[in-house]
Amino acid sequence: MHGRSNLRILVSGASGFIGTELVAQLEAEGHTVLRLVRTKPKHPSEVLWSPATGELDPTVLETVDAVINLSGASTGRIPWTRAYREKIRESRVDPTTTLARAIDGALHPPTVFLSASAVGYYGDRPGEVLTEQSTRGTGYFPDVVGAWEAAAQAVPKAVPSTKVRVVTFRTGIVVGRGGAFTPLIALTRLGLGSRFGSGRQNWPWISLHDEAAAIRHLLTSKLSGPVNLTAPTPATTNEITSYLAKRMRRWYLFRIPAWAITGLLGDAGRDLLLTNENVAPERLVSDGFAFTHETVESAIDAMFSRAE
C-alpha cells in the first residue's frame, strides 16, 4: 500500500474537529473516504453503524484498504461527573471494540487500522521526557487510555491469519479552532487569558495541520503500535497561553492557582490544565515525518492565518 494515492479509507469521527481536516487532506490526495455515521445515511459515502450496540456490517470492511478511528467524546466538557467520566471511557472503548470485531469478521480485512489515543496515557510526569517506550501512568485518564489502546490492539490477536497493522496514535493538545483551544480562545478574547498553576508544566501539543498530516503519514508507514503525535519543540502552559494572548492582542494578567483549578474543576482541571507531560514524537521523527509547524508560535500563527 506504500505510496498509493487511491486508497479507500473508512473513517469514524469524520465530522469532528480533527476528522474534518483529515478528510480534506485525504481527499486532496486522491483517496476515497467512507464516513461512519450513526443515523440513516444520506450519501453513498456514508456507512451506518452503532458502536453503542456493537453493530457494523463486517462486509463493509472488505471494501476498504484502511480504517481510521477518531471516535471519542470531548474531554473539554466540564464538569466530569461520574456519568460523564463513564461516557468519556465508553465513547472511546466501544467504537474501537466495534471496529476491531468488524475487522475480525471480514473475510478480507483492511491491512491498516489507525486508532486514536492520547498522551494522557503517561499521566503527570514532571522532569521526564516521555517516549513511546515510557510506562503508563496512574490515575483515571491513563486507565481510560490503556483500555482504549487495548481494544485496538486486540485486532491482531483476533485475526492471526492476516496482517493487520495496528497503530495507536497518542495525540496531544491540537492547536486549531476547535477542541481544547476553543475555551482558551474564548477566555483570551474576553481578556481573561491566564497562567494555570505555576505555568511551568509542559503541554504536549501539535498543530491541526500536522495532526492530520501525521495520520496520513502513518497510513503508508511501516510503524505499528503506539506513536506519539506531538510537535518536536516542547512548550509550557505559560508559553502557549501568553503567546495566544499576544497574537490576539489581549491582556495577559491573571494567574489561577492550582488549588483553585482543582477546587473548581476537580479531576478535569488536574488532568487537562495541571498535568506536566513532556512527550517526544520519537518514532514519528525517526520514521521521517517532517513537521510544518515545529514551534507553538508558528502553529498559533497558522491557526489565525487560516481564519483571516
Percent of residues in beta strands = 15-25%
Main sheet strand line-up: 3-2-1-4-5-7-11
Our Rg estimate from Cα atoms comes to: 19 Å
Largest sheet descriptor: 7 strands, parallel
The CATH superfamily turns out to be NAD(P)-binding Rossmann-like Domain
Coarse shape: globular
Oligomeric form of this entry?
A: single chain
Number of helices: 11
**Which architecture would the CATH scheme give at its second level?**
3-Layer(aba) Sandwich
Overview of the structural elements:
The structure is a single chain. By secondary structure, the chain is an alpha/beta fold. The protein has a single domain (8-307), classed as Rossmann fold (3-Layer(aba) Sandwich). Helices cover 41% and strands 17% of the residues. The chain has eleven helices and 13 strands. It has helices at residues 17-28, 58-61, 82-105, 140-158, 181-189, 208-220, 237-248, 258-265, 267-274, 282-286, 296-307; strands spanning 8-12, 32-37, 46-48, 66-69, 112-118, 129-130, 165-171, 173-175, 194-196, 205-207, 225-229, 254-256, 278-279. The strands form four sheets. Strands 3-2-1-4-5-7-11 form a seven-stranded parallel sheet, sandwiched between helices. It has a two-stranded parallel sheet with strand order 6-13. Strands 8-10 form a two-stranded parallel ribbon. The longest helix has 24 residues, at 82-105. The model has no long low-confidence stretch (mean pLDDT 93).
